[in-house]
Amino acid sequence: MPSWLGVGTSVLLVGLCLAVVVREQLGLARDVVVAAVRAAVQLVAVGAVLGVLFARAGAPGSVLWVGGMVLVAGRVAGGRAAGLPHAQRTATVAVAVGVVVTLGLLVVARVVDVEPRVVVPIGGMVVSAALRGTTVVLRRLREEAVSARPQVEARLALGLTASEAFAPHRRLALRTALVTDIDAVRTVGLISLPGAMTGLLLAGVPPLTAIRFQVVVMFMLLGAVSVAAVVAARLAEADLFDEHAALRRLEPV
Questions:
Q1: How many domains in the chain?
Q2: Residue 7 lies inside a defined structural domain of this protein
Q3: pLDDT along the chain (253 residues), means of 10
Q4: Distance of alpha carbon 80 from alpha carbon 29, whole angstroms
């Protein structure tokens, strides 16, 4: 494991990123510095809190921690889809359903233990995956509702229901949200060794044990993305149409 000196040395890599940003005049120098500082401060603070959580909070504390992550993820995803009706509520519900279904299945099937040092990091990965799928779907649906308005209204004029008229655009948004994770599952082990497996190998865990864990993680993330994305798509689609099944007018981004 790297020492604190090693962690300090890794700051040189942030400097490398900063040099590229400045050299190419990307206007992101301040963002890089703020992001690096925030990451370090947040991780140290979270590490201290997790130490207490693992030692004293038990299963109820783990559930509350994961619930807090869901709320933050919903806020972030909803913010990315600003202008979409009820974006905050839709994003939070979608992430929550994705987490409950995925993590609940693993717990009920006893694939993961119900203890803080297992539930919290696994829950964090699931929330992150659900956030990713929700964000992509909501942003893409918002874009489609603006750019494809004439096509949707033409289908409505032909007598199709709101769901049927918007179906091609919903499918496009879902494909966009899922294709990256599907490709990641398809190429795992061929292009790169994923983080969870790499961490276990560095910790000295036998390769076949690390592989079993990584398979569970990859399938878990794919499930979380899929569930969250489809829930977000269905909820957002319902909010895009008014009580007369007319497509609401959204402002272009």
A1: 1
A2: no
A3: 73 90 89 91 85 77 89 93 91 96 90 83 92 95 92 93 94 93 80 68 77 85 95 94 88 69
A4: 22
